[in-house]
Amino acid sequence: MTRVVDPESSYQRIYAIVRKIPPGRVATYGQIADLAGLAGHARQVGYAMAALPTHGAVPWHRVINAQGRISMRRSGPGDSIVQQQLLEREGVRFDGGGRVSLATFRWRKRRRG
DNA sequence: CCACTGACGAGTG
DNA sequence: GCACTCGCCAGTG
Question: What is the arithmetic mean of pLDDT over A43-52?
């Protein structure tokens, strides 16, 4: 194949990865991209997230940027507030700057058992 | 086809 | 730690 991945398949693949993130954990766009076989294409993950509904089967709120911060969706910070509340309800702690400690809450697919 | 935009990331100063 | 720049790719006009 000339294409590394198919556009539509990449979206579904991204969603499949996100759904594997356990409660109380977060993952970065770059991490999802890497797991989905789209290393270096983190922006594509963000684009896929943008297409998700606020109330869906995909735990989109567990996906944050590499800075440990919640990225703003379109229009305003309203959704970011909801995202933070959802994460806090799962036990994820935010610091004064609205930032999550990736060293503590970053999801690891599996680290030598 | 070209220009602009968008839930990003890494590098530089 | 923050601001700026470049790279990446898909969607829209």
Answer: 91
pTM: 0.89
Give the nearest nucleotide to A79, CA to C1'.
B7
pLDDT of residue A7: 46
Quickly list DSSP for A28-97.
EHHHHHHHTT-TT-HHHHHHHHHTS-SSSSS-GGGEE-TTSBPPP-SS-THHHHHHHHHHHHTT--B-TT
Q: Convert the pLDDT of each residue in A59-96 to its tens digit.
A: 999 999 999 999 988 666 788 889 999 999 999 999 98
Which protein residues have Cβ within 7 A of any strand B atom? A 28-30, 42-43, 45-47, 49-50, 52, 60, 63, 65-67, 71-74, 79-80, 83
Residues 6+ apart with CB under 8 A from A39: A33
